Amino acid sequence: MEFNLRPASEQDRGFLYALHCQTMRDVIENTWGWDEAWQRRDFDRRFREYLTSIIECDGRAVGGLLLEWKPDSLYIHELQLLPEYQSQGIGTGGIGKAIEQAAARRLPVTLSVVPANPRAQHLYERLGFKVTAIEPPFIRMRYRGDGLKLE
């Protein structure tokens, strides 16, 4: 499925928070428990601090991608898609865009996943990410290659 990324604006804040709640609530509840006030504060911090993009299909916002340039890697903080747009190659494409950006700077891509999100971990492993550390509740992963090799 065709998609594009665009920088998120203040007008996208409501969509992104609703998306976070819809796609991550079960994972967060099963890992730490859900605290609405904390989630809102942390979301606001992430929105301000990270490179936040909207994933669009046919002009419709369908997801979000939050990245952070670190001295030694490009870190994927979040990749979220509306459920009806999952399993259509959009997430793979978003990760591929991050890998391309990192490769241009000759840096790896890193991320963390929690055991309560096995679908995400499977996706990252399928795309060539390797586990570098297990620091409960996080599984740290890294991609280092010459580009995304889709199967």
Helix/strand structural class: alpha+beta
In the CATH hierarchy, the third-tier topology is known as Aminopeptidase
Using the alpha-carbon principal axes, give the shape: globular
Strands ordered across the widest β-sheet: 1-2-3-4-5-7-6
The DSSP helix count reads 4
Number of strands: 7
- CATH architecture group name: 3-Layer(aba) Sandwich
Poorly predicted sequence stretches spanning 5 or more consecutive residues: 147-151
Tell me the series of helices and strands, N- to C-terminal.
EHHEEEHEHEE
CATH homologous superfamily annotation: Gcn5-related N-acetyltransferase (GNAT)
The CATH class turns out to be Alpha Beta
The separation of the N and C termini measures 16 Å
Question: How is the biggest beta sheet arranged?
Answer: 7 strands, mixed
> How many domains?
1
Radius of gyration: 15 Å
pLDDT average, as an integer? Answer: 94
- What portion of residues is helical? 25-40%
* Residue share in β-strands: 25-35%
Structural account:
- The protein starts with a strand and ends in an 8-residue tail after the last strand.
- It has a single domain, classed as Gcn5-related N-acetyltransferase (GNAT) (Aminopeptidase, 3-Layer(aba) Sandwich), CATH 3.40.630.30.
- The protein contains four helices and seven strands, in the order E-H-H-E-E-E-H-E-H-E-E.
- The longest helix is centred in the N-terminal third of the chain and has 19 residues, at 13-31.
- It is globular, with a radius of gyration of 15 Å.
- With 151 residues, the chain is α+β, with helices and mostly antiparallel strands.
- Strands 1-2-3-4-5-7-6 form a seven-stranded mixed sheet, with helices on both faces.
- A hairpin with a 2-residue loop joins strand 3 (60-70) and strand 4.
- Mean pLDDT is 94; it is low at 147-151.
- The chain has helices at 13-31, 36-49, 90-104, 118-126; strands at 4-7, 51-57, 60-70, 73-81, 109-113, 130-135, 138-143.
